[in-house]
Design a protein that fits this description.
8-stranded mixed β-sheet, globular, 407 residues, 8 strands, alpha/beta
Length: 407
Amino acid sequence: MRINNVGHYEYCRWATRSLQATNIQDVLPQEFFQQHMEPIRQQLLAGESPAGCVECAAMEQHQKISGRQRQLLKVGVRVEQFEKTLVSSPWFDTFTADTFNQLPQDWQIDLGNYCNSACVFCSPSNSSRLAQEWQTIGLIKNLPPNNWTDNQDLIERFVGTLSQSPHIRYLHFIGGETVITPAFKTILQALVRAGLNRTATIGFTTNLTVWDSQVIDLLKQFHGVNLGMSIESFDVVNDYVRWPGKLPMVLEILDKWQEVAQQHSWLMQLRTTPTLFTVGSLLSVYDYAWSRRISVESCNFLTEPAFMRPSVLPASYRQPIIDRMQSWLNQHSVSGDTVINIRNPNVSQLQNYQDLQSYVNYLRDMPDESNRLPELIAFLKRIEAVRGNSILTYLPEYEELFRSAGY
């Protein structure tokens, strides 16, 4: 289950569209999970693919481990051995029960758009700083709706559902920036009071620009922690993409998070959102991760903004990137299952190999979308006018391409 920044439920953390605009203010989480999701279950039982499942289909098309495959692994089911592993799944009795009365065991909780960063590929609904900037320059007229976690009554309603879920296993929090979002600390405290910290694993992602000792002390009390650390490149272009962060400070905080994670045996991952700006230096992330046996997780292929997709690069720009990536893969060859548990630190190298291979496949197979370049350039001109920077400072090798599109 997922609850998004404004409190609407989603039937899956990867779903691209809701069943309907059903909000926690009107419907309890257990009611949505047990009743409103029934049409989705019926579609799946009928062998149909729900409309919101296109993200996973795209990932699997390029041999990237999809959200669907990850979730199946959690219940012991594998697509290539579906019938056999379904019957042996510890959840088989639940799947075949006449009455569905389960509560969610796995949540993605979007806390809101509190954020001190304004990443160039982000949106106002996920960054309060970006929302203010976009309103100032006229890209949006109104600020996004209030975060559902600004309402203390709704937080209590949500925590009440969690407290009724004694077998809850995983809660993944995103923002905005989770560490500076007040509700993150509030919910963690409530989970500790309810004793769920003894069995639940907490996942969250931080943008590596903030540090809060109180949050860390709370996290230390949980059964497990999956720490996602966002970085797009170990090259200076990271400063442009994850503005206004500065790479030296990011690296300093990255070291601090790794130190505390190693002390408490937390699972660490580098989280990336490759765009046409950073796909050329993506190997710097994999090099760093490989040397430290940390996995890289780029949750899906970028869909919006469409004009920042890596596929906007024409073939002449893609091919050198593909060649460098393929050379890296040849030098770091590793084999194993095609679908692995990416939360298993023992297979981090295989995860990185497979994830990078998916980007080779993507860059090789995706249709040319360079027709979107003029839209990209128009956007960059507007934001650079207020930020006082220029993409060509960071990517001089793209000057001819961008000039030809009107930069």
